[in-house]
Design goal:
Layout: H1 2-28, E1 29-34, H2 38-53, E2 57-62, H3 66-74, E3 81-85, H4 86-95, E4 100-105, E5 112-115, E6 129-133, H5 136-148, E7 152-154, E8 168-171, E9 176-180, E10 194-197, H6 199-205, E11 214-215, E12 224-229, H7 236-245, H8 248-261
Parallel strand pairs: 1-2, 6-9, 6-10
Antiparallel strand pairs: 3-12, 4-12, 5-10, 5-11, 7-8
Protein name: ABC transporter substrate-binding protein
Keywords: Lipoprotein, Membrane, Palmitate, Signal
Main location: membrane
Length: 273
Amino acid sequence: MKKYLRYLGLAFISLVLAACGQNTEDAQTIKVATSPGPYSILFMEEVAPRLEEQGYTVEEIQFSELRQAMIAVDEGEADINVDGNRLNTESYNDTLDANFEQIVRIPTVPAAIYPGQKDRLEDVEEGDTIAIGNGTVSMMRGLLLMQDLGWITLDPNVEPAKVTADDIQKNHVGIEIVEMQGAAIPPAIQDVSYALVAGSIAYDAGMDLESRLVTEEPIDGLLLEAITTADKMDQAWVEDIKAIYQSEDFNQAVMDRNEEIGTEFWIIPEENQ
């Protein structure tokens, strides 16, 4: 009987140790839901190696679009995503009934107006066209940039983050907005006078950044952020990722990338500098 109890005790201890080992392994593995664009690339090339130096294992789970990546984080298939901005996060919290929270704001590639049939902003005239992505965020950032240029006037009573084409009070230059899928804009750019292209799309399309005619000054809601779900915010890796994005070493790596490109491709949030 004593022999049996001894074996039973050893078996119990083995199970406890195995469970502890599994928990340690899970705690040290960070699953990143990535989607096409420079933000996931920056994470895997600059953040992941720094996490691995701290003893973490970083596992990349690739998705073809942001929505799929966000769903994966919401359902627990992945831990983190770095491809959306605050407006995206709020939208997905609503449409997915999710509970995403910001870990840290991260370097962002701003949208810009690129030349199409015309290569000078001063040459804009009535009947010219500008292609803008058909999402609400793309339209908002295009409208704000056109207002900054003096091309249109928007209703001052509407919050900048909520403006739509219906809020145009005056179209001073008579420009026409052509809505299309964001990814379809670069191939069709010669069909319009100008094009508003998001930074991630311009990156994927290999567009010449030096050809940008004007670059937006992103409002707070347009700065990219690393997100996870509320139940994971107290885990150690969350603070470790935040510390990396706000470290001098990481910021220098981002500025080095700007130097290599020859232009300010990345904007670093003020609080990270």
